[in-house]
Amino acid sequence: MQTYFEFKKNNTSLKTEIVAGISSFLATSYIIVVNPSILSQAGLPFSGVLTATVLVCFFSSVMMGMYARNPILVAPGMGLNAFFTYSAVMGMQVPWQVALGAVFWSGIVFLLLSVFNIRTYIVKAIPKPLRYAIAAGIGLFITLIGLANAKFIIQAPATIVGPNELSPAILTFLVGLLLTAVLLVKNVKGGILIGIVFTTLLAYPLGRWWGPETMVNWQGVFSAPDFSLLFELDLVNSLQFAVWPVIFAFVFTDLFDSLSTIVGLAEAANMVDEHGEPLNIKKSLLVDAVATTISGLLGSSPATAYVESAVGIEAGGRTGVTAIVAGLLFLPFLFLAPLLSVVPAIATAPALVLVGAFMVRPIIRVNWLHLSDAIPAFLAMVLIPFTYSITQGIIWGFLSYTLLKVVGGEYRKVPVALWIIDIFCILALFVH
After folding, report:
1. Which of 36, 159, 268, 414 has a CA between 20 and 30 Å from the CA of residue 377?
2. What would the DSSP string read from start to end of 286-351?
3. What are the subcellular locations of this protein (predicted)?
4. Which residue in 125, 137, 39, 27 sits closest to 71, CA to CA?
5. Residue 234 backbone class (left: φ over 0; alpha: ψ -120 to 50; beta: rest)
């Protein structure tokens, strides 16, 4: 194992990788319940989607660890599940069986792009300033998710967002945040995981006797798996011309979500080769493509590389063992899904907030005095969290980069592949 995953080369150990895997799982496990809650609104059975979600997370993450040897989890993507439900099924009146077929065919397109190495060329076409900005933007995005999960920031009509009033839940989050920060400053091994466990224990009384909010609500222990969605996709009708926009939206969004996540995590953690490219990028993207394909077969919206993998990476995870451990931890929840109620959102929120501090590091490598680099980088960085969409951030980052380079007489710095990407960016704006 140490030889295959190159522990010495990556300056890690089995213990570190296991702790990192547990940390990533705890930060990502919410998807087991959240994905079914969204897709069930499209008419899919909640229990069936839950089973499909667990299977997708298990197979995809273990595959990422074993084959690509990267510490990146793969799970049904947030945003993609919302598009599946609210745009495709509810908005365009596409039957959910047909929408699952569209997920499958988008995965096939991914596979073709990956097999012929087109996705790797796309990665190389992303300008360095935008790579650094995407990493920082994802960091800010993760921090925003953490603050929102803790309800530290809430919707405010006058100011869009604003701080919440102090409450036992908010104070619990702040104590967990400060403790986790102290552990990280002190370089305590497994500091993030310790912070999650401590905050969970601190939050437990909130489910019993502190204040009106119920943060920890036991929902039982055991639930039987439901395999009713396996192979329920409609492969024939999903190829109709009317469904092509749905397939395109899945392809484009998943493509750039996964690309930007992998590139951003690699830049933030310095997991790059001698040419500055993300390690094992081709294999990682191939796994992502297979994950999307099996998502349609199992009964879920498309899977993608998960930004919350940054929690495990910051905990020291540098090899595929991190992803394997996390993937294996999903499997018991085929039967034990109600146990997830033990770990409330405010317990993982501190980890998400603090991970953002590490992911913004690459932004110092942008030449902020060169405005044709700085402005696109800035737009990409801020639009990812402000639009709550990685895809929107990179669309406007790419388009503004091309425009400013052409207007500034630096059009030779725009690769041919980036011109092609720009065309798809414009098309994606109309599809969404």
Report:
1. 159
2. HHHHHHHHHHHHHT-SPEEE-TTHHHHHHTT--SHHHHHHHHHHHTTHHHHGGGGGGS-HHHHHHH
3. Cell membrane
4. 27
5. beta
Segment 389-411, tens digit of pLDDT: 887 888 999 999 999 999 999 98
Q: Which residues contact 113 (CB under 8 A, 6 or more apart)?
A: 119, 255, 289
DSSP strands (E only) in 147-294: 153-156, 160-163
- The torsion of the CA quartet 62, 68, 69, 70, rounded to 10 degrees, works out to -90
Determine the distance from the C-alpha atom of residue 417 to the mean position of all C-alpha atoms in its chain, rounded to a whole number. Answer: 25
Phi, psi of 415 (to 5 degrees): -65, 155
The three-state secondary structure class of 53 is helix
DSSP state letter for 163: E
- To 10 degrees, the CA torsion angle through 91, 92, 93, 95? -110
Name the stretches of the chain with pLDDT < 70. 206-220, 340-341, 431-432
The Cβ-side half-sphere exposure at 325, using a 13 Å CA radius, reads 24
Contact assessment for residue 211 and residue 45, using Cβ atoms and an 8 Å cutoff: no
Whole-number Cα distances in Å, 72 to 23, 34, 286, 349: 12, 20, 13, 19
CA distance 236 to 101: 8
- Cα separation, 69 vs 321, in Å, equals 7
User: CA-CA distances (angstroms) from residue 389 to 47, 76, 276, 395, 412?
Assistant: 28, 15, 26, 10, 30
Nearest to 44 by CA among 1, 84, 91: 84
User: What pLDDT digit, counting tens, does each position of 161-220 carry?
Assistant: 999 998 888 999 999 999 999 998 997 877 888 888 899 888 877 655 555 666 556 666
Question: What is the distance in angstroms between the CA of the first residue and the CA of the last residue of the chain?
Answer: 44
Q: Which two tokens stand for residue 129?
A: 């300033």
Q: Which two tokens stand for residue 384?
A: 């990812």
161 backbone dihedrals φ, ψ, rounded to 5°: -130, 160
Q: What is the CA radius of gyration of the chain?
A: 21
Q: How far apart are CA 114 and CA 118, in angstroms?
A: 6
In whole angstroms, what is the distance from residue 367 CA to residue 138 CA?
19
